[in-house]
């Protein structure tokens, strides 16, 4: 059952929409490389689309009616957007769930070190990465520094053409005979991911025995620019990411090369589908953009927290359901969800890792993974046949290009998403997203055709009655 190449079926009008949407997406991922930045931009776009803070509605005890648009944010790292439908909430929701965190390097709390006149920041990698892929690349630093006086300073260095960039050095090939005998996982080890950030020494008066002069000069620059001292690293969240914008890929500009396609290639189409609903839906439409998926969905801003559940409880209270848990349970058990997460795109250079009949191919549309997990489906959600049939009818009815996939050969590896967490509430859920080449690398590749199909597929799903 081969699925057709989506490019062959697009009309001129669809191709124009595809190009415009791809440009918007490219700008979004170029300017939003952390979960905080994604959520802040999403809130800005939501407010422009008429969304208001759920917190303000709760404070005013405002009774919400069909068509109401509200959002809730958890510590600026996770976001829920809701448009109330005409049906009672107890009849269930249509939910899109994507994550906005990405594999990266996090600056440690006590990171600064000077050795042989070179100043580095120690890092701890976040999520699953091949560590050797992160050396000799131009890097940027994004994040916040929270100070004891309660102020928070935004940091973004390495993105503007006038900015400096940073780098992790590697051993020259001429001296690498021993290094090249190591396994790939050992060529660059975690403690070697030190980011080079300075070299110039502080010039002091003669007789001043300055220790670590290059580090002292760097701290002087940080104090001048951000008003921070070395101890402020203790309460900073600084993320090291590839520097520079996403770019069109290929002579035909059919693909996009960028950082963070996993999972912003699903998060951005989900966001746009939610914000651009033409009519008040029958079933309430909800999109959640969540943090911490890459490390197990843990913590207060991950999917396993009570943020999602608490937000729904507040919505039920503001729609006349009081504070009982029964309405919440009914609502969730009758809900439908697309766990909007990327899939592994078939790569002919590594064909032995894939089972060709059940692989996602670039340019063949939105990829549905009935189950994820590892080996014998360990740690997966497995969508039931009836729900898969409903989704097939939805996509075909909307003319959306789609395909099915598994994440590689059965015993090669695997992975997970947030789907199993929502399934614990008895939500009908299936994974679906954009196929990606070089997933979890600093630079990943996707097809614009699949990105467009995701947007249209998510629109059709949210309108599903």
Quickly list its features.
465 residues, alpha/beta, Aminopeptidase, Aminopeptidase i, Domain 2, 2 domains, nine-stranded mixed β-sheet, six-stranded antiparallel β-sheet, 22 strands
Task: Kindly describe this structure.
With 465 residues, the protein is α/β, with parallel strands linked by helices. It folds into two domains: 6-102 and 259-462, Zn peptidases (Aminopeptidase, 3-Layer(aba) Sandwich), CATH 3.40.630; 104-242, Roll (Aminopeptidase i, Domain 2). It contains eleven helices and 22 strands. It has helices spanning 12-31, 35-48, 54-60, 184-187, 213-226, 261-275, 307-317, 325-333, 385-397, 419-423, 448-462; strands at residues 52-53, 69-74, 78-83, 93-99, 104-115, 118-126, 139-146, 152-157, 195-198, 236-242, 247-249, 255-258, 284-290, 336-340, 343-344, 366-369, 373-374, 402-404, 414-415, 428-433, 435-436, 444-447. A nine-stranded mixed β-sheet has the order 1-2-3-13-4-14-20-16-18, sandwiched between helices. Helix 1 crosses helix 11 (448-462) and helix 6 crosses helix 11 (448-462). The model has no long low-confidence stretch (mean pLDDT 95).
Summarize the topology:
Blueprint (H helix, E strand, L loop, with lengths): L11 H20 L3 H14 L3 E2 H7 L8 E6 L3 E6 L9 E7 L4 E12 L2 E9 L12 E8 L5 E6 L26 H4 L7 E4 L14 H14 L9 E7 L4 E3 L5 E4 L2 H15 L8 E7 L16 H11 L7 H9 L2 E5 L2 E2 L21 E4 L3 E2 L10 H13 L4 E3 L9 E2 L3 H5 L4 E6 L1 E2 L7 E4 H15 L3
Parallel strand pairs: 1-2, 4-13, 4-14, 14-20, 15-21, 16-18
Antiparallel strand pairs: 2-3, 3-13, 5-6, 5-10, 6-9, 7-8, 7-10, 11-12, 12-22, 16-20, 17-19
């Amino acid at each position: 059952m081969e699925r057709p190449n989506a490019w062959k079926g697009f009309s001129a009008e669809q191709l124009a929409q595809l190009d415009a949407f791809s440009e918007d997406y490219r700008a979004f991922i170029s300017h939003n490389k952390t979960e905080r930045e994604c959520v802040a931009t999403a809130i800005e776009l939501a407010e422009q689309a008429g969304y208001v803070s759920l917190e303000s509605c709760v404070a005013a005890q405002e009774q919400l009616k069909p068509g109401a648009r509200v959002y809730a944010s958890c510590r600026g790292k996770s976001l829920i957007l809701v448009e109330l439908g005409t049906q009672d909430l107890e009849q269930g929701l249509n939910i899109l769930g994507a994550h906005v965190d990405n594999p990266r390097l996090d600056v440690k709390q006590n990171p600064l070190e000077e050795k042989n006149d070179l100043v580095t920041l120690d890092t701890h990698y976040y999520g699953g990465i091949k560590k050797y892929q992160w050396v000799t690349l131009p890097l940027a630093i994004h994040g916040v520094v929270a100070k004891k006086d309660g102020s928070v300073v935004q940091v973004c260095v390495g993105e503007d053409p006038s900015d400096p960039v940073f780098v992790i050095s590697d051993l020259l090939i001429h001296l690498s005979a021993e290094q090249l005998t190591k396994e790939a996982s050992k060529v660059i080890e975690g403690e070697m991911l030190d980011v080079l950030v300075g070299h110039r020494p502080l010039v002091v008066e003669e007789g001043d025995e300055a220790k670590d002069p290059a580090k002292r000069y760097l701290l002087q620059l940080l104090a001048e620019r951000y008003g921070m001292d070395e101890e402020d690293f203790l309460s900073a969240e600084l993320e090291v990411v590839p520097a520079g914008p996403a770019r069109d890929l290929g002579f035909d500009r059919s693909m996009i090369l960028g950082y963070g396609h996993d999972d912003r290639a699903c998060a951005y189409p989900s966001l746009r589908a939610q914000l651009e609903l033409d009519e008040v839906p029958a079933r309430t439409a909800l999109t959640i953009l969540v943090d911490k998926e890459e490390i197990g969905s843990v913590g207060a801003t991950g999917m396993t927290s009570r943020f999602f559940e608490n937000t729904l409880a507040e919505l039920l209270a503001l729609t006349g359901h009081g504070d009982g848990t029964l309405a919440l349970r009914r609502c969730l058990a009758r809900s439908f969800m697309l766990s909007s997460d990327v899939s592994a795109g078939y790569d002919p250079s590594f064909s032995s890792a894939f089972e060709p009949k059940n692989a996602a191919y670039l340019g063949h549309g939105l990829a549905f993974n009935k189950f994820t997990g590892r080996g014998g489906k360990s740690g997966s959600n497995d969508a039931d046949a009836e729900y898969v049939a409903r989704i097939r009818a939805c996509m075909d009815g909307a003319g959306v290009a789609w395909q099915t996939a598994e994440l590689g050969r059965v015993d090669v590896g695997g992975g997970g998403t947030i789907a199993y967490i929502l399934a614990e509430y008895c939500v009908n859920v299936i994974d679906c997203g954009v196929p990606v080449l070089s997933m979890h690398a600093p630079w990943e590749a996707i097809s614009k055709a699949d990105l467009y199909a995701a947007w249209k597929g998510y629109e059709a799903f949210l309108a599903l009655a």
